[in-house]
Design goal:
heterodimer; A: 275 residues; alpha+beta; outer membrane lipoprotein receptor (LolB), chain A; 13-stranded antiparallel sheet; 13 strands; B: 884 residues; four-stranded antiparallel sheet; three-stranded antiparallel sheet; 9 strands; 64% helix
Chain lengths: 275, 884
C-alpha cells in the first residue's frame, strides 16, 4: 500500500473515488454513513488519495535537507505526473533546477504494478541517459530523507494491513511487509485522515523494534477540489536528519501528453516543465 | 634548627596522639577513594582546550566519524576463506547483533548501527544488465550457496571503498567496523561480541577484535586489576627485604605503615579533588612507595646501628632524627621539586601526576618525622633488646657480603679516584651516544604483551587489511575569490561566444552584467544577483520560445560555474590531485589504504558507463562530478558521502588506514603528506589538518617529549639551586648533581642503545631519577661533611663513610630496586617498563653515589674541605648543635 507519500500526495489529488465516496457519504442512507469502511477500502482510498489525484498534475518542489549539524542542502525540481489508470500504472517526470550544477538533470519513472518500475536518469554534464534498476525502491531520492518508494508509492499488496485504531480523525493502520528481507523496517504505522484519506503520518519501526523514521504531512490545501499535501517532512530519527518538501504551483488535470514521458524528452525537456 | 626539635619532641612526648592523628587522616582521605572515576583515554593526555583536540572533535562531528572497534574474521581452513555460507551467516548475525548494542545503564554508550561497515550494511553500485545500474545492499541476507557467497566476495572486491577495508585484498578475510558513540564502550562491546561469537560457535573461523578504542578501554580495565596486584606485591617485597636487613618485624612495620598511609592519603586527595584515575595517576602509589620508605630506612638503619651503643631508645631516636632531619627535608624537597616541575608540562594527567607525587613525598616526609619517633617510643624496650645485635660486630671484622663490597668500593674510589672517574667518563660518552640514538615512539596497542588477544588481533588483521589504525587528513579551501571586474570580464567573453545565435538575449545579458559589476563587492555576489534576474527572464518567456529558453539556460549555466567555484571538491583538477596524493601515500608503504571523495566519484563514474574500467576516472567537468555524486546519493546510504566531504564541498576528509599505530609511523605519514603538498603544488590553495586517534597520540607524545624535557631541565636547575643553598656552596651543589647526571645519561643511553622506544613511562621516569638519585648524593655529602668536620681527615672520613652511611644507601638501593621486581611480571608493558627502570635507576644512582662521590671528593679534597678541614671550628659547631 502506498501509504503515504507525501510527494505523491501533492501531485495527486483526491481522486475521483474520494469524491465519489464523499458523495455517497453525504447522500446515502444513515446506515451506510455509520458503517466504517473495511480495511481494504481504507488502504485503497489512501493509495488513491495520496498518488492518483486528477488525471495528471504538476508541482514545483523545494526540498530542504537539514542534517544533524543543521547544515542545509537544497533540491529544487519540477515534477510532472500522468496516470494511465487510477490505482494503476503512472508516469513521473522530475526535472531538476537546483543545485545549479545538476540543473537539467531528469529523473523519469514508469510505475508498474505487475513488475518493477522503469527508471531513467539523465545526466546532462555526462550527456548520459542511464536506466536505474528499481528492484529495491527503498533507496534515497537524490540524497534526501525521502525514498523512491515515497515518491512513487509502495505497492498495496506488499504488506499485510491491520486497522489498529480508529479515532475521530484517523484510521491507524499497522503494516507488516510480506517479504521482510526486502525492506529495512519490520513494520510501519500510518495515520490516515478519515475525511481526505490522505496518510498524514507514517512511523517506521526497525528490526530491533525501534522507531527510526517518520514521514508526516505538515500542511494540506484544497487545490482544484483535491485535498493536497503542500508541506511534508521526512525525519531520520537515528541520523538526526530531516527533509522538508514544499510543494508550490500545484496544478491538476493539465492535459499532459503521454509522449513527454519518453526517453526522447530526457535530453530536451518538454515545455510543460517551464510553466 | 628549631622546627625539627619541636616536631620530634611532639612525636616523642605524645606518641599515642600522633598515631591516632595519622590514622584518622588516612581514614578520612581514604574514604574519598571510593569516588574514583577511571579515565584511560589517551586523548585526555591533551587538555580539552588543546587545538589538536578541538579540531579532532570538530572533524568527528563535521564528518560524522566515530571511534571504531574492528572485528576481523579469518578462515584458513575453507578454500574460499570466510566467503562461505556458514561464515557469512555468522558475520551477518554478528553485524545485526552489534547494531543494536547499547549500554543498559547509559543508552548514550552504544554502537552507531547505521554507520557499521559490514556486508549487510554497505551499499554497492553495480551493473544490472541492459545498461542499467543498481544500488543494492551487498549482503541483504546470508547466502545459502557457495555461488552466492562468492558473488558477495567479488562484488566487495570490486569496490575500491571496501577492498582492503572491509574485505582483505586476497578476498579471504573480512573485517567489520563497528563505530561506537563513546570510546569507553569499547571494552564492554568487545566482551559482548566475544560472548555472541561463542554462542554462534567459531568452528574454523577465527575472530579478532582490535582498534585503538578497544586497546585503550581494555587497558583501563586491566590497569585497575594490575594496580590492585602490583602495588601490594611490591609492598610485600619491600617488607621482606627489610625483614632480611633489620630482622625485627615490629620495627620495620613502621615504614610500611607510613607507605600505606601516604599512598592512601595521597590517592584520597587526588580523587577527592576531582581528578580522574588516569594511567599516569594509577602509577602514583608505585612511585610514592619507595620514596616513602626511603627516609624510614635511613632512620632505621642508623637507629639500628646506634641503639646498641646507648640502649636508650629515646636518646637514640632523638640523636638519629637530629642527624637526619636536614638531609631528609632536603631530599624530600628535591624529590618533590622534581615531580612538581611536571605540573608545568602541557599535559593534564602528567600535571596531576607530578603534583600529587610531590604532595605524597612531602606527606611521607612529614609522617616519617612525626610518626617514626612516636612509633619507636611506643615500642617496649624489651622488644628492642636484641635489636641490631647481629649487626653490631666489630666493623673491621664484619665480613658480611654488603660490607665487604662497600669497603671494596670505598677502597677503589678513594684509592684510585682517577681510574673511577675516567671509567665513568667513558660510560658517560657511551650514554650520550645512546641518547642520540633514542627513538621517540609509543603505541597504546603495544601496552599489551605480545601474547595478549589484542596484540594478536592487531597483528593478524593488519596483515590482511589496509590497516586498523585510522587517521583523518582534512583538506580544505574555498578557491580563489574573484573580484567583480574580473568575473564580469570572464562572464561577458564566455557568453559572447556561447550566445552568438541569440544576439538580443546576449545584449541584454551583457548590459545587466555591466550594471551588476558596479553594484557588487565580489564576483560571487554579482553572480547571485544576475542569477535571480535571469531566472526571471526565463520565467517570462512564452511557452513556445524554445530558443530563448535555451539561451537563458546557457547563460545561467555559465553563471553557475562562477558561483560554484567555492565548492572546490567538485573540481576535477582537485580530485585528481587527491588521487595523486593517495597513490603517493600508498607507494610509501605506511598507509595501507585510503578512502576519499575521489574514490567514490571514480567508482560511480565507472558504473554509470557500463562498469567500463576506462571510466574509472574523474569526469571532465565540475558539473559532471556533481551529477555523478547526485547519482551516488540515490543509494541506501547517501549520507556516507558526508564522511568524506562536507555538503558545501569546501572540506574533504581523506580517511587513511595505517597498518601500524606506532607514533613514528604516523609521523612519517605526516611528513610524506607535507612533502607531497610542498613539492606538488595543488591546483587550488589547500590547507591540510589532521585528526583521528592515531594522530592524537602523536600530538600528545610530541607535547610530552618537549614538555618533559623542559620540566626536567627546569627541575634540574631548581634542584641544583637547592643543593647550593643546602651546602652553601656552588661546588658542593655541583657535586650533588653528579650522580644523578650520570645515572640519567646512562639509563637513557641504554634505552637508546637497546632500541627501547622512548614512550610515556620512560619519559616520566626521568623525573623519578632526578628525585631519587639526588637523595643518595645528599645523604652521602651531608654525612661526609659532618664526619669530615669531626675527623678533619679525609681518608679516615672516607673509611667511616663506608660503614653505616654507605650501608644505609646500599640497603635503600637494594630494597627499592628489588622491591619493584614484581612489576616485571605485570602483563601490561608500561608497568614492566616502570619496574625495570625503577630498579635500574635505583641501582645505578646508588652505585654512582658511592663510587663517584668519594672519588671526586678525594681528587678535590683540597678545595671542598678547605674550610671544614679546620677541626676546631667544626667541632665547636658540631658540639653546639648537639646541645639539647
Amino acid at each position: 500500500m502506498t501509504i503515504n507519500n507525501c510527494i505523491g500526495n501533492t501531485l495527486m489529488k483526491s481522486n475521483r473515488s474520494i469524491l465519489y465516496t464523499l458523495l455517497c457519504l453525504l447522500f446515502l442512507s444513515p446506515v451506510a454513513m455509520a458503517s466504517e469502511p473495511d480495511i481494504d477500502e481504507i488502504v485503497n482510498k489512501a493509495n488513491l488519495a495520496a498518488y492518483y489525484a486528477g488525471e495528471d498534475g504538476r508541482a514545483e518542489v523545494t526540498m530542504t535537507i537539514t542534517d544533524n549539524q543543521k547544515r542545509k542542502r537544497l533540491r529544487q525540481f519540477i515534477i510532472l505526473r500522468k496516470d494511465k489508470k487510477d490505482g494503476g500504472e503512472q508516469f513521473f517526470y522530475v526535472y531538476f533546477k537546483k543545485p545549479s550544477d545538476v540543473r537539467k538533470m531528469v529523473f523519469m519513472v514508469h510505475k508498474h504494478l505487475d513488475r518493477d518500475d522503469d527508471r531513467w536518469l539523465y545526466l546532462p554534464a555526462l550527456d548520459l541517459v542511464k536506466r536505474i534498476a528499481a528492484a529495491d525502491k527503498r533507496t534515497s531520492f537524490v540524497g534526501s530523507n525521502y525514498l523512491y518508494e515515497d515518491v512513487s508509492g509502495r505497492g498495496i499488496n506488499e504488506d499485510t494491513h491491520e486497522l489498529v485504531k480508529t479515532d475521530d480523525q484517523y484510521y491507524v493502520l499497522k503494516n507488516v511487509p510480506k517479504d521482510p528481507d526486502s525492506v529495512e523496517f519490520s513494520s510501519y504505522t500510518v495515520w490516515i485522515d478519515k475525511k481526505t484519506f490522505l496518510p498524514m503520518k507514517t512511523e517506521y519501526i526497525d528490526k530491533n523494534g525501534q522507531k527510526y523514521r517518520i514521514v508526516e504531512v505538515l500542511e494540506t490545501q484544497q487545490i482544484d477540489g483535491h485535498p493536497t499535501v503542500t508541506i511534508s517532512k521526512a525525519t531520520d530519527l537515528a541520523g538526526g536528519n530531516a527533509t522538508t518538501a514544499v510543494f508550490q504551483a500545484i496544478k491538476y488535470d493539465i492535459n499532459l501528453k503521454g509522449e513527454i514521458f519518453s526517453e526522447r524528452y530526457l535530453r530536451r525537456p518538454p515545455r510543460e516543465i517551464r510553466r | 634548627m628549631q622546627l625539627d626539635r619541636t616536631m620530634i619532641q611532639f612525636s616523642i612526648r605524645k606518641p599515642g596522639l600522633m598515631t591516632s592523628l595519622m590514622v584518622t587522616m588516612t581514614l578520612i582521605l581514604g574514604v574519598l577513594i571510593l569516588r574514583v572515576h577511571v579515565d584511560t583515554d589517551p586523548e585526555n593526555m591533551l587538555s580539552e582546550k588543546e587545538m589538536v583536540r578541538i579540531f579532532h572533535d570538530r572533524t568527528k562531528k563535521e564528518f560524522n566519524l566515530h571511534d571504531v572497534v574492528v572485528l576481523g574474521v579469518v578462515n584458513e581452513k575453507d578454500k574460499d576463506g570466510v566467503f562461505n555460507p556458514e561464515t557469512l551467516t555468522k558475520i551477518y548475525q554478528l553485524s545485526r547483533f552489534a547494531a543494536g548494542l547499547a549500554d543498559s545503564g547509559d543508552p548514550e554508550r552504544k554502537v552507531i548501527g547505521r554507520d557499521i561497515i559490514a556486508p549487510d550494511n554497505v551499499d554497492i553500485i553495480e551493473q544490472a544488465g541492459l545498461g542499467q545500474v543498481r544500488f543494492q545492499w551487498l549482503m541483504n541476507k546470508p547466502p545459502t550457496t557457495r555461488k552466492e557467497a562468492l558473488h558477495i566476495r567479488d562484488k566487495a572486491l570490486d569496490n575500491p571503498l571496501l577492498k582492503g577495508t572491509m574485505i582483505a585484498e586476497d578476498g579471504r578475510a573480512l573485517a567489520m567496523y563497528l563505530p561506537i558513540s563513546r570510546k569507553d564502550f569499547a571494552h564492554s562491546l568487545s566482551k559482548q561480541l566475544k560472548k555472541k561469537i561463542e554462542e554462534l560457535g567459531a568452528d574454523n573461523d577465527r575472530f579478532y577484535i582490535t582498534g585503538l578504542p578497544v586497546a585503550e578501554d581494555t587497558f583501563g580495565k586491566e590497569m585497575f586489576i594490575q594496580m590492585a596486584i602490583s602495588a601490594p606485591l611490591a609492598m610485600l617485597m619491600i617488607f621482606l627485604l627489610m625483614l632480611v636487613f633489620f630482622k625485627k618485624i615490629p620495627l620495620i612495620i613502621s615504614p610500611m605503615i607510613i607507605a600505606v598511609c601516604t599512598v592512601i592519603s595521597t590517592m584520597g586527595l587526588l580523587i577527592g579533588t576531582g581528578n580522574t584515575l588516569h594511567i599516569m595517576s594509577s602509577m602514583i602509589p608505585i612511585f610514592i612507595m619507595p620514596i616513602a620508605v626511603v627516609d624510614s630506612i635511613h632512620i632505621l638503619s642508623e637507629f639500628f646501628d646506634e641503639y646498641q651503643k646507648t640502649k636508650d631508645k629515646k636518646k637514640t631516636i632523638e640523636q638519629v632524627m637530629h642527624h637526619l632531619f636536614k638531609p631528609m627535608l632536603f631530599t624530600s624537597l628535591t624529590s618533590a621539586a622534581g615531580f612538581a616541575s611536571l605540573s608545568f608540562t602541557p599535559i593534564p594527567p602528567v600535571q596531576a601526576f607530578g603534583l600529587f607525587v610531590a604532595i605524597g613525598i612531602m606527606l611521607a616526609w612529614l609522617l616519617t618525622i612525626l610518626f617514626i619517633p612516636a612509633y619507636v617510643m611506643l615500642m617496649k624496650e624489651k622488644s628492642l633488646e636484641n635489636f641490631g645485635a647481629a649487626e653490631h660486630v666489630d666493623p673491621v671484622t664484619d665480613r658480611s657480603l654488603i660490607n665487604r663490597h662497600l669497603r671494596w668500593i670505598g677502597r677503589t674510589s678513594v684509592g684510585r679516584p682517577w681510574l673511577v672517574i675516567s671509567f665513568n667518563l667513558v660510560v658517560m660518552v657511551i650514554g650520550i651516544i645512546g641518547i642520540l640514538m633514542i627513538q621517540v615512539n609509543d603505541n597504546p596497542v603495544k601496552w599489551f604483551h605480545k601474547s595478549h588477544d589484542i596484540r594478536i588481533a592487531d597483528k593478524i588483521l593488519n596483515q590482511h587489511f589496509g590497516g586498523t589504525y585510522e587517521a583523518y587528513l582534512v583538506l580544505s579551501g574555498s578557491g580563489e575569490e574573484q573580484g567583480p571586474a574580473k568575473a564580469a570580464q570572464w562572464l561577458s567573453s564566455t557568453l559572447s561566444k556561447s550566445l552568438k545565435s541569440s544576439p538580443v538575449i546576449l545584449a541584454k545579458a551583457l548590459a545587466e552584467i555591466s550594471e551588476a559589476v558596479a553594484e557588487n563587492p565580489s564576483g560571487r555576489k554579482m553572480a547571485k544577483q544576475l542569477s535571480l534576474s535571469w531566472q526571471q527572464e526565463i520565467d517570462k518567456l512564452a511557452p513556445e520560445d524554445d530558443a530563448g529558453y535555451e539561451a537563458w539556460s546557457q547563460a545561467l549555466d555559465t553563471l553557475d560555474r562562477l558561483r560554484n567555484q567555492k565548492q572546490i571538491f567538485k573540481r576535477p583538477d582537485l580530485l585528481n590531485y587527491i588521487i595523486g596524493l593517495q597513490n603517493f601515500l600508498a607507494a610509501q608503504g605506511d598507509v595501507g589504504k585510503s578512502n576519499s571523495i575521489a574514490d567514490v566519484v571514480q567508482k560511480v563514474h565507472q558504473e554509470l558507463f557500463e562498469g567500463d574500467s576506462d571510466h574509472f576516472t574523474i569526469p571532465a567537468t565540475a558539473n559532471g562530478v556533481a551529477q555523478t555524486l547526485i547519482s551516488y546519493q540515490n543509494s541506501h546510504k547517501p549520507d556516507d558521502l558526508w564522511h568524506l566531504v562536507t555538503p558545501d564541498y569546501t572540506r574533504a576528509n581523506l580517511w587513511l588506514q595505517l597498518r601500524s599505530g606506532d607514533n613514528k609511523d604516523m609521523e612519517r605519514v605526516i611528513d610524506d603528506v607535507n612533502r607531497y603538498l610542498t613539492e606538488k603544488k595543488p591546483p587550488s590553495k589547500l590547507k591540510a589538518e589532521w585528526a583521528g586517534l592515531t594522530y592524537i597520540n602523536v600530538a600528545w607524545q610530541n607535547k610530552m617529549v618537549t614538555g618533559m624535557l623542559k620540566s626536567f631541565l627546569s627541575s634540574f636547575v631548581v634542584v641544583f639551586i637547592m643543593m647550593a643553598i643546602l651546602f652553601r656552596s656552588l661546588l658542593w651543589g655541583l657535586l650533588a648533581m653528579i650522580p644523578l647526571t650520570f645515572t640519567i645519561t646512562i639509563i637513557y643511553g641504554v634505552i637508546g642503545l637497546i632500541g627501547k622506544d622512548y614512550d610515556m613511562p620512560v619519559a616520566v621516569l626521568s623525573s623519578l631519577t632526578l628525585g631519587l638519585a639526588v637523595d643518595f648524593a645528599i645523604h652521602f655529602l651531608q654525612r661526609s661533611r659532618a664526619t669530615m668536620a669531626r675527623f678533619g681527615d679525609w681518608s679516615r672520613t672516607a673509611h667511616e663513610m663506608f660503614e653505616e652511611p654507605a650501608r644505609a644507601i646500599a640497603r635503600n638501593t637494594i630494597v627499592i630496586s628489588l622491591g619493584f621486581t614484581p612489576l616485571l611480571f605485570a602483563p601490561l608493558i608500561p608497568y614492566q617498563t616502570v619496574g625495570v627502570f625503577l630498579a635500574s635507576i635505583m641501582l645505578y644512582s646508588g652505585l654512582a653515589t658511592l663510587w663517584m662521590l668519594p672519588a671526586l671528593l678525594t681528587v678535590l679534597q683540597g678545595r671542598v674541605f678547605k674550610n671544614t678541614i679546620k677541626p676546631t671550628n667544626a667541632v665547636t659547631q658540631q658540639e653546639q648543635e648537639k646541645k639539647p
